[in-house]
Specification:
Length: about 100
Amino acid sequence: MNHDHQHPGGSQPEPSSPIRPVPDGRALLIRGGLTVLIIIAVIYLLTNHWLHLLDALPYVFVVGMMAMHLFGHGGHGGHGGHGGHGDGPDGTAGRSAGNGN
């Protein structure tokens, strides 16, 4: 196979780099250290500040629900090609087209 053609701009394409480089030992050590620190912080918060965490729990749920709504299906308009929000084939919720309800 011969590839003697010219690319636009007169240069040959550069070889593609790997999508995800293999982390070296130092990066693995930093990632492991951060993981251990986060685990220690979570244990500390759970054991010494349990009541404060329980006080914040309703707010965590509200923020979590908003985040799941916004990011869970691509934000608003991310429903794709559905006909409607209903369960039925014509976009109606629970009603069939022929029973007159």
